[in-house]
Amino acid sequence: MLESSPFNPLVYWPHVVLGISSIAFAFIAIGSRKGGQRHRQAGRLFAITMSIAALTAVAFSFVRFAPPALFSAVVALYGIGMAVLTLRRRDGALRRLEVSLSVVPALIALVAAIAAVMALLPPPPGVEVSLFMRLTMSSLSLAVAILFAALAFGDFRFLRSATPTRSRRYRRHAMRMALAVTEILRAPLISFGPPLGADGLLSFPVYFFGPFFLIPAIYFLAMPQWLKAANGTEVAEGREASAA
Question: Smallest Cα–Cα separation from 151: which of 115, 176, 184?
Fold first, then answer.
């Protein structure tokens, strides 16, 4: 559990306010017509507020090391960065930034795979962890490894594509933004949930891994509108090309 006492209140409480604000912006963006002005404005505000909140969370980790909070911040920055860059022109510095961000899911997948193996090992002397809990943590870690390996593979395929279609860009944008939105829920659960230890061990898998299950819900909720917007744009572009 993260408390404000180790941190400067002038930094900690704005971080909390930005995190709460990003929740409102995310739901407005999800519920708005994709590609419309309200969607773009809410999405832009979500990206800004969530990015600042994530960066301050990274800074907090240098004050008091908290791996779950650091993980949540890095995933949020990756999701927002890739979601935004997917809709931008892929050249120059933006292209290099996109390539750099593509390393993040590969590293997370590797760490999660290692954690899945280590969870099966006998605990150190004096530490009691049931076999059921070890299997649970190993299975969940493996699921995270598979998820981020799939994201890394998707990044690799997308970056290799010279001219990805608009619908493919929108699918990728929706998936990465859905990933970032899940961190809105994980961050406060990590901050204010039970600590990782004897009293909080059973609840840790729930509040750490649980938000991942929201990704398909958010993705499939947003995709029909995104595909409709993509098809409409592609049809309009086709008509303009035919007229020219």
Answer: 176
Residue by residue, pLDDT tens for the chain (244 residues) are: 444 445 566 677 788 888 889 989 988 888 888 778 888 899 999 999 999 988 888 887 777 767 777 888 899 999 999 999 988 876 778 888 989 999 999 999 999 999 999 989 888 887 777 788 788 888 888 998 999 999 999 999 998 887 888 888 888 888 898 899 888 878 777 766 665 554 444 566 777 777 888 888 877 777 666 667 656 554 344 444 344 4
**Quick one: 93 exposed, middle or buried, by C-beta within 10 A (0-12, 13-18, 19+)?**
exposed
Indicate the SS3 state at residue 158: helix
Q: What's the CA gap between 203 and 140, in Å, rounded? A: 13
Greatest CA separation for the chain:
77
User: Tokens at residue 147, please?
Assistant: 């998820």
Assess if residue 1 is contained within a domain.
no
Tell me how far the alpha carbon of residue 1 is from its chain's centroid. Answer: 20
Does the residue 2 lie in any domain?
Answer: no
Q: Is residue 203 part of a domain?
A: yes
Residue in this structure with the two tokens 């035919």, named with its chain if needed: 242
Distance of CA 185 to the CA centre of its chain: 11
- Could you list the residue range(s) of the whole structural domain that residue 128 is in? 9-243
DSSP 29-90: HHHSPTTSHHHHHHHHHHHHHHHHHHHHHHHHHHHS--HHHHHHHHHHHHHHHHHHHHTS--
Task: Look at the block and give the residue holding tokens 């699918």.
Answer: 171
Residue 39, domain member (yes or no): yes
pTM: 0.81
The structural domain count of the chain equals 1
